[in-house]
Known about the structure:
Blueprint: H1 3-11, E1 20-21, H2 33-40, E2 44-47, E3 57-59, E4 62-66, E5 69-75, E6 84-88, E7 92-94, E8 99-100, E9 103-104, H3 113-123, E10 132-134, H4 142-145, E11 150-151, H5 152-158, H6 167-174, H7 185-192, H8 198-212
Parallel strand pairs: 1-2, 2-3, 7-10
Antiparallel strand pairs: 4-5, 5-6, 6-7, 8-9, 10-11
The structure holds fe (ii) ion (FE2).
Amino acid sequence: MDVERLLEPVMQSSGKIVGVVDTHVHADHISGAREAQRLCRCPLYMSKTASVKFEIEPLDEGEVELSGLRLRIIDTPGHSPENLSIVVDDRVLLSGDCLLVGDVGRVDLRGRAEDLYTSLHSKLLALDDSVEVLPAHIGRQHFVSGESSSTIGIERRSNPALQMKSIEEFRTYMAEGWPPKPEHYELFIKVNSGQIPLSEAQAIVRKAEGELV
Ligand SMILES: [Fe+2]
């Protein structure tokens, strides 16, 4: 929710934020996208497959131009049903939580391994090796390498999840080795999809914690 800190460098420059994109309904934190949209007075974009109870500009697969940039919108479900990836000017891939650095997004909160396998192999690995990869999330490998960005070529060669050559192999790979599910993740999903306001989620957490004391 602490979006002002993130927006400040742009606000203080001559740049202008013309749109906010939320790549998916997050399950591990409260999204600041709606607050950023309010502060910037611009549209909030999400995949047209997103099931949310607030106003968005739905993005369909294909090319759109925004403020002089050519954006290729790619639906990449798997980590979550509505995960969106965007290729900017054929050079940079914003991969949401589909393809991470040395890792992929977990599927045990809102996703399906089969969908993720298809999104990775049929869609993102079709991109050129030179495309830079900027994910929305660090992966488990981040704690070893410290890297937060990569390229399609590096990931194609070295990402362990991409070495699984069948859906069955991939499903087994995705079934273990993940951190525990985030506490209250179902509430994060409800807030981030607009089903309940943040204040209601906070009251539920306070009550649950009070009952534990
Ligand atoms: Fe996520």
